[in-house]
Design a protein that fits this description.
Order of helices and strands: EHHHHHEEEHEHEHEHEHEHHEHEEHEHH
Radius of gyration: 25 Å
Largest sheet: 6 strands, parallel
Number of strands: 13
Strand content: 15-25%
Strand order of the largest sheet: 1-10-9-8-11-12
Oligomer: single chain
């Protein structure tokens, strides 16, 4: 079911690339489908949305009824409500520490340069399936940033509203909702229709269709999205003889049950533990409600990798640059000084990535190697930073010389003339 790879073999990286690259490549069929959906929504707007909602989500209403929302929340188990409140409070406390300060600088010539921060006007949180934790992760930093209009967009599950997601929305003070899912939902929020009001930015994870739709609306300049690739979940584990095979297997399954496109990998210098983990994964899958999804994921995108050295572990890890890492080795602290590229890292035997999905740190994280150039969602993602330049007469006289020379050298004569006119101003 799950592959065992040997990093010492010549063809190892080609085998690894087979797993990594098929998750990165956009197949023409998916691209064609998403483009078709986007163009249909562009042309037919709410009529197209209703068509896709009926087809995929057994849903006939774009804007959910307030009474139905109240009813769904009322039916929610009080224990789940309490858990949602606790998680929100943890996430809020952590993200409050992230709010950036304005920067002001005045030089010797009395030139003034400063950064001012302001919140984005409106954002939409796309929440797939029944994931109140995702709404908390996406909306909390936006709320702290000061975003005035926060929208919840979440599909119905078998035609029903999810009380947990809407309860989380009530805690967050969200009052605008759309019962929409998939690529059509992304286009509706980016473009706007009669029933759906457009937003400035869309955040949140989703399927490959959702992820691709977000990229396409961004390329059209319709709205912003996160800088990271937010695709199906990933985990990479480091283990040795001290690690628990039961815990390793459970962590791999936990990420694999998200989506058939999820990825779960293990790196270890111990072949015995690799073989044990393979057997235990098979046993733990037997009674898993999302068994078929996890099995498909592990078969296509899972691997237990044998390595000879710590150096190889670091090299392979940074080559992959995964969304999540769990370091389960005995002397885990020795690795903390190393440069490890990942969206989030859980350190030590008690630190579960599955638990970190519920805060306080982010679970909306970079996937498919985008941790190499981007980070998880934060308060900064909902803030626009604007620079101000206020030059003095002495300042433009001094700075203008180098600016005039370089703009002339670059053959930007309009620039040099503009600079010179400021230098000559009395």
């Amino acid at each position: 079911m799950i592959k065992i790879l040997d990093s010492n073999k010549k063809n190892f990286y080609s085998q690894l690339d087979n797993i990594l690259n098929k998750r990165k490549i956009i197949d023409e069929s998916t691209l064609s489908t998403v483009k078709k959906i986007i163009n249909n929504v562009r042309t037919n707007k709410d009529k197209a949305l209703t068509y896709y909602e009926k087809k995929f989500n057994q849903n006939s209403e774009i804007v959910p009824n307030k009474k139905d929302i109240s009813k769904a929340i009322k039916l929610l188990d009080p224990k789940i409500k309490k858990a949602i409140k606790e998680i929100y409070n943890r996430v809020k406390e952590w993200h409050l520490k992230q709010k950036p300060n304005d920067i002001y600088y005045k030089d010797k010539l009395k030139n003034k340069f400063y950064y001012k921060h302001k919140p984005i006007e409106s954002i939409a949180c796309y929440v797939p399936e029944n994931l109140p934790s995702t709404l908390i992760m996406c909306a909390t930093p936006a709320k702290i940033a000061g975003v005035k209009r926060i929208v919840l967009c979440t599909p119905k599950i078998n035609g029903k509203l999810n009380g947990a997601v809407y309860y989380a929305a009530s805690i967050l003070g969200i009052k605008e909702f759309y019962s929409l899912g998939g690529a059509s939902a992304i286009m509706a929020m980016a473009m706007g229709t009669k029933k759906v009001k457009a937003v400035n930015k869309i955040v949140g994870p989703g399927s490959k269709w959702v992820a691709l739709a977000k990229k396409l609306v961004f390329l059209e300049g319709l709205c912003g999205i996160e800088s990271a690739n937010m695709g199906p979940s990933e985990i990479l584990l480091w283990a040795d003889t001290s690690s628990s095979p039961e815990i390793i297997a459970s962590s791999m399954i936990a990420q694999s049950e998200h989506d058939s496109g999820s990825m779960a990998l293990l790196l270890s210098k111990d072949l015995k533990i690799i073989k044990k983990v393979k057997d235990i994964i098979f046993k733990q899958l037997k009674d898993l409600p999302r068994k078929k999804i996890a099995q498909k994921s592990l078969k296509a995108n899972g691997a237990l990798i044998y390595v000879k050295s710590d150096k190889s572990i670091l090299k392979i890890t940074n080559y992959i640059s995964p969304e999540h890492i769990e370091i389960l080795t005995k002397n885990y602290k020795k690795y903390l000084k190393s440069k490890i590229v990942a969206g989030s890292i859980c350190v030590g035997p008690y630190s579960s990535m599955a638990l970190s999905d519920y805060g306080p740190t982010q679970h909306t994280l970079p996937t498919i190697s985008s941790a190499k150039f981007s980070s998880g969602l934060s308060v900064k993602d909902f803030i626009v930073q604007t620079s101000y330049n206020e030059l003095s007469k002495k300042g433009v006289a001094k700075l203008g010389k180098s600016g005039y020379l370089l703009s002339t050298f670059e053959n930007l004569i309009g620039h040099s003339r503009s600079i010179k006119k400021r230098m000559e101003r009395k």
